Structure prediction request, 271 residues.
Amino acid sequence: MSHGLLKGKKGIIFGALDPNSIAWITAERVFEEGGTFVLTNAPVAMRMGQINELAEKTNSKVIAADATSIEDLENLINNSMEILGGKLDFVLHSIGMSINVRKGKAYTDQNYDWTHKGLDVSAMSFHRVMQTLYKNDAMNEWGSIVALSYMAAQRVFPDYNDMADNKAYLESVARSFGYFFGKDKKVRVNTISQSPTPTTAGQGVKGFDGFIKYAEKMSPLGNATAMDCANYTITLFSDLTKRVTLQNLYNDGGFSNMGVSDGIMDIIENS
Prediction:
């Protein structure tokens, strides 16, 4: 159901790969709520995914951009403003990658070249995106920038590996850059700490099915779905949250405040 929450608003959505991705579902919801946007992903991800189908469905343009390249980001932001007819109202950063995870390297046996690449793609890219937006004065006042995070930024999930460090850095960047964006430009910056969600990227983490089952048992409302995350993001892009900024917001069914649940205790006691 559409409420017209984003009517007249325009932005950029990073990271839509396929119908399983949170960015894809968010793009569909933004379109339903009246927003217009440019879709972007890295060239290699675009070859692997189905982003052109999403663009056709949402009447959007696609601009390839490597989020680790200032030149690509300059081109993306300037062309997006030209396509959309002015400054931006929202940006979604839904980017994450760990070569160590993909290659099965343990956290105690990192390939540091891979670690650096993952940090650059997953977290430093968020600073790079915001710096480019900031320097180009590309955001309207009361605009909103959102990045997607995960609870492993605060707690130990051994198999999440160096992605936990990436997410911790990402959340710190949101707070630190969010201060300057708020003070100087009246722009909001937040992260959403989402339940484990069966996206294409998430399923590459060892033991991911166990993460999902554990979180489901721990959370009084159960795991938040990709659609739940998309809907939450819509509220953050809307004018209903004009003074919410510098926050890491949990969309996790209550998991983040739980110590233990009856469901987990039953499993332990009966094992």
